[in-house]
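Please decode residue identities from the backbone states below.
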């Protein structure tokens, strides 16, 4: 009798183990975190479906030659100026690109003037017959100051990508009244003043 009872108990235990293993494992229920304050229910967890993603930013293509011309103009015209002064030069350059009376490229604006072909067959600017004095002063345009050049490149890229507002308010010209008295200053409208320089724009 004892043998039969042990056998029945063994069979029952085996059936229990098989039954338990055959039952599907259920994942624990997810519980939503809520906070109750004065009877009002708050859900501090943000819902992903309610989050609005900003539209993708379209990349801006920058021409390496145009970038170099802009950086050279900033470097030679204003490398000794403050960041505001350098930005103003870049703004004026871009304003001329967008003005109907000037070339529609940065290099065209920077190199605008009278040119000739020298005995080597190179196109050269005629001395003192250009828009930006450094370009036609007869001196070498070699870049010597590495940090100033790096800053000029960075600023040129930022301006070309539209990362700065125009602090000159549309100016196409600028001059230092302590050093020069250009005839065109009487014909154009003053738009801004930064440091020692006055910025002006064509009124037509």
């Amino acid at each position: 009798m004892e043998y039969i009872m042990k056998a029945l108990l063994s069979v029952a235990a085996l059936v229990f183990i098989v039954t338990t293993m055959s039952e599907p494992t259920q994942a624990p229920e997810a519980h939503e975190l809520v906070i109750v304050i004065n009877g009002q229910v708050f859900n501090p967890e943000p819902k992903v479906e309610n989050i609005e993603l900003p539209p993708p930013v379209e990349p801006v293509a920058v021409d390496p030659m145009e970038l170099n011309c802009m950086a050279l103009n900033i470097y030679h015209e204003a490398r000794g100026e403050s960041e505001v002064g350098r930005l103003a030069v870049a703004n004026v350059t871009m304003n001329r690109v967008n003005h109907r009376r000037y070339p529609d490229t940065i290099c065209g604006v920077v190199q605008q003037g009278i040119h000739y072909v020298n005995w080597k067959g190179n196109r050269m600017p005629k001395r003192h017959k250009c828009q930006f004095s450094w370009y036609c002063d007869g001196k070498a345009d070699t870049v010597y100051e590495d940090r100033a050049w790096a800053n000029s490149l960075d600023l040129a890229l930022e301006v070309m990508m539209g990362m700065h507002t125009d602090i000159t308010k549309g100016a196409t010209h600028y001059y230092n009244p302590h050093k020069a008295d250009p005839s065109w200053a009487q014909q154009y409208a003053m738009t801004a003043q930064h440091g020692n320089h006055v910025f002006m724009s064509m009124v037509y």
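Observation: Residues 2-22 form the longest helix (21 residues).
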